[in-house]
Write a structure and sequence with these properties.
Length: 201
């Protein structure tokens, strides 16, 4: 079906079908195919027949419009292909246009203006300054706490209690692994420093 030769006038007997005719359509489709069991109240057989004929005509027009639309979509796709327009480039153009539409919309401009007003207000500036100072003080406090903990751990490592614990771990390692593991000598690591009897561990 050549879309250039189609007649899309709905009053035309061809209705966009080109060389095809309505005889190619199935004879019974949609609501027309239903045989009414009973007529709605107040509707005569002649009125029902007129409505059925009108419904048939409307369904044929819908069918014709779908065919014409399908042909037009194929033709548009062919033109886009010849112009080198890919679906990806179309999507990019649509997104760009959509973003431009958003940026020029009254809602966006109003919200942007409101945000600018807020950012330039004295309350915002004071709040920003207060939060900045609080962040700096918090950072300094964490730094001080970290330094104190490091110092305390260093002091603890040099304490006699920690040394005793460290000696016990070394002795336990010697008993489990043995003296020749990792190139160590065969003697116990702390034979010269016997473990204190009054150690808390």
């Amino acid at each position: 079906m050549d879309s250039a030769n189609q007649d899309i006038n709905l009053n035309s007997p061809h209705k966009g079908l080109g060389s095809d005719s309505l005889s190619d359509l199935p004879e019974e489709r949609g609501a027309v195919a239903l045989s009414p069991v009973t007529l709605p109240p107040g509707l005569t057989e002649e009125e029902a027949e007129e409505l059925r004929l009108e419904l048939t005509k409307v369904e044929e027009e819908i069918y014709t419009l779908r065919q014409v639309l399908s042909a037009k979509e194929r033709h548009a796709a062919e033109l886009k292909r010849k112009l080198g327009l890919s679906p990806l480039s179309e999507l990019k153009q649509n997104i760009t246009k959509g973003w431009q539409d958003v940026q020029t919309s009254n809602a966006y401009l109003s919200a942007s203006s409101t945000l600018d007003d807020i950012a330039n207000s004295e309350v915002y500036k004071k709040t920003q300054e207060t939060l900045s100072q609080a962040g700096q003080k918090t950072s300094a406090a964490f730094s001080t706490v970290g330094t104190a903990i490091s110092r305390k751990l260093g002091d603890m490592r040099n304490s006699p209690t920690f040394k005793t614990f460290e000696d016990k771990v070394e002795n336990l390692k010697y008993k489990v692994v043995g003296g020749n593991a990792n190139g160590e000598s065969a003697h116990r690591p702390n034979d010269s420093n016997p473990v204190q009897d009054n150690a808390p561990f």
